[in-house]
Amino acid sequence: MNARLLLIVGLGLLPLVAQAHKPSDAYVHLQVDGAVVTQRFDIALRDLDRELALDADDDGQLSWREVRTRWADIDRLSLQGLDMQADGAPCVPGAAGVPQLDEHSDGRYAVLTRRWTCAAPVGTLTPVYRLFAQSDPTHRGIVRVQQPGRDETAVLVPGAEPRSFGAAAAGPAFAGFVREGVHHILIGSDHILFLLALLLPAVLASPRLAPVLAEVLRVVTAFTVAHSITLALAAFDLVNPPSRWVESIIAASVVFAALNNLVPMVREGRWKLTFAFGLVHGFGFAGALKDAGLAQGALALPLLGFNLGVEAGQLAIVAVFVSCVWALRTTRFYRQVLLRGGSAAIVLVAVLWLAERAFDVQLGVAGAEAVPLSGVAG
To answer: How far is residue 234's CA from residue 248's CA, in Å, rounded to a whole number?
Structure first.
């Protein structure tokens, strides 16, 4: 294999190293009581550091002192990112609450609390969400609104048309979770590379299209069934493995799937391998739903919508891949460059992910000055 070509392919995939983590989400909990709306707004420290350069000593760690020193800037950013309207009239934000941190499945978050006062008892509440609209097109806000007799959750896209909550509000939240599922799979580089590593040899299973599609269907179905099982188990908090372990095993699954194309270890029944690793990927998909703070009784529809969105995005990837490579599958270019070169490049990227996740070199809070979990909002 041409080493120069492999290097080019590998370098082309290296930007994925920075994109393979849990997508950027923030969590907004709004409790309505008459004309008062109590807000809790959780924003990831890694996102805040990107926007505000909180890491003053540039040591790759965030201490509580560094976060607390910049809390006024963090609160100002949160006010720019979230506004409130009730029945078409603006609500007035109160003073910021006590600075707090909380732990989510993917790291620590700043917790911004305040009360909004509206002109009259709230009938229809409309959060206007703009956080990171200009700097991060992948960001989403997962909003839960509790009103007397109602508990609604939706996914908001920064800068998009605001969504209203309440008895008179229109538009189901289900479609938003379907879109969020599509969004998560399409920007989930590790899940995409895992699928591609499995699909690269699948188109060589037969010279005829029907057997190839059958092989692809077995692989995709195994992945779908497996991650659906663990997505549900994790979302309902029945099984809750540590996020660091899950992310490390996901990276290892990408390494193994791509390495298997270069040094075959599993030749038959590859769908079984896909099923086993798909169970782990399901835990990775579950983070956004778990962190949204949904009540157990309110999980069913978001879970179904999210899972349908993941499958729709996955099928779109498969359709595009097979249609693009079908005419090339018998060529030397496909076997040497796309199959072998692409698999080697995937191994390279996934090994970097594995080292990064296993040794925990991502943004964190320095242990000596970190706020203990027992002392933060829970």
So the answer is: 17
Residues 303 and 174 sit within 8 Å (Cβ to Cβ): no
The model's pTM is 0.70
Look up the domain containing 188 and give its range. Answer: 3-19+181-362
By the 8 A CB rule, do 138 and 128 touch? no
Question: Cα–Cα distance between 40 and 18 in angstroms, integer?
Answer: 29
CA angle 236, 234, 24 (to 5 degrees): 110
Alpha helices in 263-299 (DSSP H): 270-285, 287-291
Please give the Cα distance from 117 to 123 (Å, whole number). Answer: 13
Same domain, 190 and 135: no
Residue-wise pLDDT for 89-103, tens only, equals: 999 999 999 999 998
Residue 228 in any domain: the answer is yes
- Is 73 domain-assigned? yes
Question: What is the token pair recorded at 377?
Answer: 């909002």
DSSP 337: I
> Mean pLDDT over all residues of the chain?
83
Residues paired with residue 198 on neighbouring β-strands, in sequence order: none
pLDDT in tens, 241-271: 887 888 899 999 999 999 999 998 877 777 8
